[in-house]
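Q: NodT family efflux transporter outer membrane factor (OMF) lipoprotein, please. Structure only.
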Amino acid sequence: MLLTASASLASIATALSGCAIEIPLDPAKTPPPVQAPAKPVTPAKPAVAPSFATLMILAAVLLGGCAVGPDYRTPLLATPAQWSRAGASTPAPPVLPRWWTRLRDPTLDRLVVEAVDGNLDVATASARVREARASYRQAVGALLPAITNSDSARLAKGTGGTSAAPGGLNLGGPSSLLGSDGTSGLYQAGFDASWELDLFGANRRAVEAAAYGIDASDENLRAVLLTLVGDVASSYVEARGYQARIALARRTALSQDETTTITRNRLAAGTASAVDLATATGQAAATRAVIPTLETAYAQTVHRLSVLTGRPPAALSALLARPKPIPAPKLPVPAGIPADVLLTRPDVRLAERRYAQSTARIGQAEAALYPSVNLAGNIATSGTRLGDLGRNSSISWSLGPTLTVPIFNGGKLRAAVEIAQAQRDQQFLAYQASVLTALKDVEDALVALSNERVRSRSLATSTTAYRQAVSLSQSLYRSGSSSFLDVLTAERSLYGAEDALLQSRVRIVSDYIALNKALGGGWDGEVDALTPQVIDVDTGPHPAGPITHRRAAL
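A: Structure for NodT family efflux transporter outer membrane factor (OMF) lipoprotein:
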């Protein structure tokens, strides 16, 4: 079948892009125009067939809305209908905004705000947000034409013959073009413009991927804030827990010192043995030996908390020096349903946005398999004197499309598509893994919190019983009705039970924090992600200073 050039172009473009286009080719087959008032009839001009370049431009414009590659669809993942420990929480939706305030500790509230403002990981994530937004603007710029200006000035001196300069001007020709010293000049000015027609959506897919990149950077910032708030709260609770345990060890050591004094007096009276005195002294010293270990752990926790707020390690020592009770959360915690984590967990949303971004990049790679058209044009003016550029100058221009068709590349382009598809699969699996991890985190926190509350109640009962045992054994020992071994056993058991109870209270709060983190609770206030951390100076043209890329000798 014989096809015209324009019809062939339309058919090929449609076949390559998968986008239906319609170009009227035969004036006889076009719809009749709307009837207009009668006018004098003039002879019709013969129809002129459109040139191939014109049709190429028209087809490129019509194909500008086409894109290859898969369109992203949000995946639907199955989640359980309820948590396995449904009795450990209420089915109401989780109350995540500012969850740490329900610990009712103003110092903790203050530290969270200071950490958000000063933490270096938050500042790094904010810089990634600015990078993603700049990358998006860069990708959008590829959709627009590029225009550049070029100016040049040349001087030449010759003694004979001819010398053709660029643009066809003869610098060594007629003497009227030469200066008094035999020099001649050529001045040129012009503009170059180019525009890559996005026939198959390569640049649009790049913009799409960059837009998903902005979303991913935002979710990454939220994930960093979630981790930060949880770490600050956990470190603060641990610090208060160490303070309580240090105070308990000191009280117990003082009580055991009193027992040692009583034993020493009984030894002097002949009613106790030296073995009893040595045992009492050793037990008090052993209890006191625990204190330095707890103080070390407390100091390290304060140092970690200070660094989380972006300050030197000892910056919070004075603020936390005065002991305060271990915060107690209000329980139970509403956990909602498992499907909530798909919307509330920033790490899950981050993985989903990365999956979307990798999907867009498949289309970007596939577009390289198809032809590309670039429109280029330039206009230039030249003269022998600078003042001639606006008056007596020669003007030249050019305009036309460039068609590039990949014919043979050794499978490199197809391999790039397969690489993008494999990367998309990896991101999809990472998204699935993030969902499973989120569900696991919530289930673990629910189990840990529920069981720790049961354990804490048992430890409280144990502590009450051992406290009574110590009181009774000491009374009986003073009256001579009980052995010293009963007193030592009761005191040792009481100290262990009280210390375990304090640790259990800290663990309950830690599990409460972990549950809120697992549900997606983080910072929901404002974060300045647009202000750079480093403010550059002397960025414009200025005299260059000495090279300072090497460190000065110490």
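A: Brief note, in case it's useful. The first strand starts at residue 146 and ends at 157.
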